[in-house]
Design goal:
Layout lengths: L1 E4 L1 H7 L2 H17 L2 E2 L4 E3 L4 E10 L4 E10 L2 H5 L4 E8 L6 E6 L1 H19 L6 E6 L3 H13 L2 E7 L3 H15 L2 E4 L3 H5 L3 E4 L18 E4 L12 H6 L1 E4 L2 H7 L1 H9 L7 E4 H5 L13 E4 L4 H17 L4 E3 L2
Parallel strand pairs: 1-7, 8-9, 8-11, 9-10, 11-12, 12-15, 13-14, 13-15
Antiparallel strand pairs: 1-16, 2-4, 3-4, 4-5, 5-6, 6-7
Length: 325
């Protein structure tokens, strides 16, 4: 028997604080060498892209593979989303698939959770800090949610090229978090905050790195291909740079690869992987004036850890549908 979990099922059992806990454990396992994280497999059928992301966390007992597809013609041709994701969770003792779950909401939360964990270990610890969000989509919402779990945030501002999207973001997140959320009239207003999250689809830098104030922590989320970047060379060079994966940063992240190609930084500028900071091998922040930056690419260990959490919570609450496959 396998448990089937719909998007609504996943939403009903998955919360940010718990997700941050398991994502932190997953990164610790990666640092300790108890995680198995093969390279992501890419296949390009006609008109689409298929990604296969397996991972195994030995200490957590989480064995899973996420399947993600990106078909740009889906909305017009078939009336379904461009991006579709499902996660298969296996029993690591038998190999049996014990759960098939929707991966869309899970991916959004686990991505936010990684930024929340990075904020926990790298941002200043002052009370009443402010948060600034570039972008107003689903991932931007998850970023703000995670930051408020990691730190006591007194106010947030959001900037998006779509004023309507920003208004919807403010209404939803202000209510959800019980937080004052305001619309930024310009990128500079976001740069005045203490914790900044970039969650846009922009292929070019979205703010001037020279204007970022001392003591800021930045979570860079949106760009994830070699030729696209949200962050300019200036802010990369100014920051203590931590990534989810050194390999992913130098093979997939234009935010890092472009400054490297320009000669503005060398590979030694990459300070640490997040797991190394979590387990205490490296220090996330040494002073209140330095700028810290976390570059997220998204790793399958986050999916495996979160899928195991979702499954355990679903079983405990009798959520989902058991099927014979």
């Amino acid at each position: 028997m396998a448990l089937l979990l719909t998007r609504e099922d996943v939403i009903s059992v998955l919360d940010m604080a718990a997700c941050m806990d398991v994502v932190e454990q997953a990164f610790a396992e990666l640092a300790h060498g108890t995680a198995v994280l093969p390279l992501r497999i890419n296949i390009t059928p006609p008109d689409g892209l298929a990604l296969y992301m397996p991972a195994y966390l030995k200490e957590m007992g989480a064995l899973a593979c996420k399947v993600v597809t990106v078909y740009k013609k889906n909305p017009d041709k078939f009336g379904i989303p461009t991006t579709i994701g499902k996660v298969l969770l296996q029993n690591p003792e038998t190999g049996e698939v014990i759960c098939v779950m929707d991966g869309g909401y899970l991916t959004a939360v686990r991505t936010g959770a990684a930024s929340g964990v990075a904020t926990k270990f790298m941002a200043r610890k002052d009370d009443g800090m402010t948060a600034g969000i570039f972008g107003a989509g689903v991932q931007a919402k998850m970023q703000l949610w995670a930051v408020t779990v990691a730190r006591k945030i007194s106010k947030a501002v959001v900037y998006d090229v779509s004023g309507e999207a920003a208004d919807k973001f403010i209404a939803e997140m202000g209510k959800k978090l019980g937080l004052e959320v305001a619309k930024a009239a310009s990128p500079d207003e976001v740069l005045a905050t203490d914790v900044i999250c970039t969650a846009t689809s922009s292929p070019t830098p979205i703010f001037d790195g020279k204007k970022v104030k001392e003591g800021t922590h930045i979570n860079g989320i949106g760009s994830h291909t070699p030729k696209a970047r949200e962050l300019d060379t200036e802010i990369i060079a100014r920051s203590r740079l931590v990534g989810d994966s050194r390999e992913a940063c130098f093979k997939e992240a234009g935010d890092i690869m472009i400054p490297l190609a320009e000669g503005a930084i060398d590979e030694d500028h990459f300070y640490a992987e997040l797991g190394e900071v979590i387990v205490g091998e490296k220090i996330g922040r040494e002073t209140d004036v330095e700028i810290t930056l976390f570059k997220s690419n998204g790793l399958a260990i986050q999916d495996a850890a979160t899928a195991k959490l979702v499954y355990d919570k679903a079983v405990a609450s009798a959520t989902g549908t058991e099927v014979e496959i």
